[in-house]
């Protein structure tokens, strides 16, 4: 079995990953607050943890991995948006979730096993808060319930800070009802015009942190394998999740491995809604940047390094990915059925297994692409399988905005007359006899003659390069 190593924020080390139960490997990732289109930064953890999900499914089996990513659909930012637009909250959250799905699908991200909405777990949150009060970790004050950070001695361990450092360094809300300025809200009162649920502390709504603790417990249990999210969530969100979960369920360990992706930046600053320095995934797709190109760019930088989106990266990604797709599509009909990333090349898997070294995986696939372009069918198969594994389609359809060069080929049908029929027949014969040596031969004759061939199930598309030399096609006979 492939050995996976992951960097664990908790221990600050790269460690061999050993699941609690290899028959059910469990991962929780903090999902979006749904009031607006996802910006490109929000897409980074989606692609990072999708890649990990694919790796885990490959190593432990498709049915042996449970991936939970929540939707935060109760939040003051959502309330503010509803008030500003005079729209019902549910319309806004439903619409945003639909957009999120469309955009992330376009990036080739698989849907997680469960995508719980916070509002469907209010009962579990209330039960957990009651439990925390009963165990002496939380207290009620003026209609609020607060978590008492001093009651949990490991508070701050994930980010390596003491409570005193936090108070000194953080801008915390100093409310008169807090016993310690770092105490955080588990429950707060709602006025009649705001969403609210009945609770032992009156009508109110949950704080953000308790949502993830309640949903992960409900869907994954008191101990699970991996907890992920952007490193902007490490403090306070993840510290607070740990405090709540470990105090409510001291019998469990909560998450064994904590993984944090670095930020997508714009001129050295985190891309964020509050700074206003963002563009959305949807905008990029509309501008004709294919979702797979966005994915390709993300995979070029290790997830624990900050990265920028640049036009140059986009262009290079599009060019390389087109090269891969055409290298595979030359052999499209020859590829064995069922290429579904089941047998991705070992060196690509091992790159990912080393703390998701996606850029190395990309480099290795590029080597296969180079060999495939020279007519090596085995390399083309590896490339196709590796592409599927990394979340790319191996046919030459873009999710959006066909690349300019591809358009040119498809819009420019050629009439090769007699040659064309001969090519087609020769190729078909090779395919039916599964004589791959013959396919290799044909494809190299074509390439030598200055013709590029793209074949799909239904048609053969030919493209002339400037070096086209029809006399060289005689070698086909
Ligand atoms: N610039 C970024 N780069 C990488 N990940 C990010 C970035 N901004 C947010 N994230 C991640 O996106 C996920 C969704 O977060 P969330 O919905 O809370 O974002 P947000 O708070 O709405 O965004 P913003 O921080 O722009 O206000 C989280 O895992 C978060 O860490
Ligand atoms: Zn969370």
From TrEMBL:
Entry binding sites for Zn(2+): 30, 212, 237, 241
Entry's localization field: Cytoplasm
Ranges spanned by the short sequence motif 'HIGH' region, renumbered to the chain: 32-42
Cofactor: Zn(2+)
Enzyme class per UniProt: ligase
Keyword field contains Kinase: no
Record-linked InterPro entries: Cys-tRNA-ligase, Cys-tRNA/MSH_ligase, Rossmann-like_a/b/a_fold, tRNA-synt_1_cat_dom, tRNAsynth_Ia_anticodon-bd
Motif 'KMSKS' region, residue range(s) on this chain: 270-274
Reactions catalysed, as given in the entry: tRNA(Cys) + L-cysteine + ATP = L-cysteinyl-tRNA(Cys) + AMP + diphosphate
Main location (coarse class): cytoplasm
Record keywords: Aminoacyl-tRNA synthetase, ATP-binding, Cytoplasm, Ligase, Metal-binding, Nucleotide-binding, Protein biosynthesis, Zinc
Amino acids binding ATP: 273
GO annotation, biological process: cysteinyl-tRNA aminoacylation
Cofactor note: Binds 1 zinc ion per subunit.
GO cellular component, one term: cytosol
Alphabetized GO MF terms: ATP binding; cysteine-tRNA ligase activity; zinc ion binding
Superkingdom: Bacteria
Subunit-structure text: Monomer.
Full protein name: Cysteine--tRNA ligase
UniProt source species: Actibacterium lipolyticum
């Amino acid at each position: 079995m492939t050995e996976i190593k992951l960097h664990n924020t908790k221990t600050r080390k790269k460690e061999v990953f050993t699941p609690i139960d290899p028959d059910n490997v469990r991962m929780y990732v903090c999902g979006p607050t749904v009031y607006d289109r996802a910006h490109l930064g929000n897409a980074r953890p989606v692609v990072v943890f999708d890649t990990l999900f694919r790796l885990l499914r490959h190593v432990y089996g498709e049915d042996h991995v449970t991936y939970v990513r929540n939707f935060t659909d109760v939040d003051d930012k959502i309330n503010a948006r509803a008030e500003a637009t005079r729209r019902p909250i549910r319309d806004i959250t439903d619409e945003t979730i639909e957009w999120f799905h469309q955009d992330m699908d376009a990036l080739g991200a698989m849907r997680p096993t469960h995508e719980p909405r916070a509002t469907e777990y209010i009962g579990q949150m209330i039960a957990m808060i009651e439990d925390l009060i009963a165990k002496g970790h939380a207290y009620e004050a003026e209609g609020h319930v607060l978590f008492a950070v001093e009651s949990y001695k490991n508070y701050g361990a994930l980010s390596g800070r003491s409570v005193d450092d936090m108070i000194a360094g953080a801008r915390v809300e100093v409310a008169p009802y807090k016993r310690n300025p770092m105490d955080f809200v588990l429950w707060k009162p709602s006025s009649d015009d705001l969403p609210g649920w009945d609770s032992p502390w009156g009508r109110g709504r949950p704080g953000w942190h308790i949502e993830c603790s309640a949903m992960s417990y409900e869907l994954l249990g008191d101990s699970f394998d991996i907890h992920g999210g952007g490193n902007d969530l490490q403090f306070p969100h993840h510290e607070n999740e740990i405090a709540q979960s470990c105090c409510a369920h001291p019998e469990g360990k909560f998450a064994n491995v904590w993984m944090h992706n670095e930020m997508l930046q714009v001129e050295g600053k985190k891309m964020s809604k509050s700074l206003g320095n963002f563009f959305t995934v949807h905008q990029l797709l509309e501008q004709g940047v294919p979702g797979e190109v966005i994915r390709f760019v993300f995979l070029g930088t290790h997830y624990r390094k900050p990265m920028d989106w640049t036009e140059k990266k986009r262009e290079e990604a599009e060019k390389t990915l087109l090269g891969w797709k055409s290298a595979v599509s030359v052999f499209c009909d020859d590829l064995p059925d069922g290429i579904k990333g089941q047998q991705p090349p070992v060196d690509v898997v091992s790159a990912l297994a080393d703390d998701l070294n996606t850029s190395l995986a990309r480099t290795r696939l590029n080597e296969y692409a180079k060999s495939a372009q020279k007519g090596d069918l085995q390399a083309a198969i590896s490339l196709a399988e590796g592409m599927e594994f990394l979340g790319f389609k191996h046919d030459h359809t873009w999710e959006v905005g066909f690349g300019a060069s591809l358009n040119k080929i498809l819009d420019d049908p050629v009439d090769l007359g007699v040659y064309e029929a001969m090519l087609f027949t020769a190729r078909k014969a090779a395919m039916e006899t599964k004589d791959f040596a013959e396919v290799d031969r044909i494809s190299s004759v074509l390439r030598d003659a200055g013709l590029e061939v793209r074949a799909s199930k239904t048609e053969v598309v030919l493209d002339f390069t400037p070096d086209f030399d029809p006399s060289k096609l005689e070698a086909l006979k």
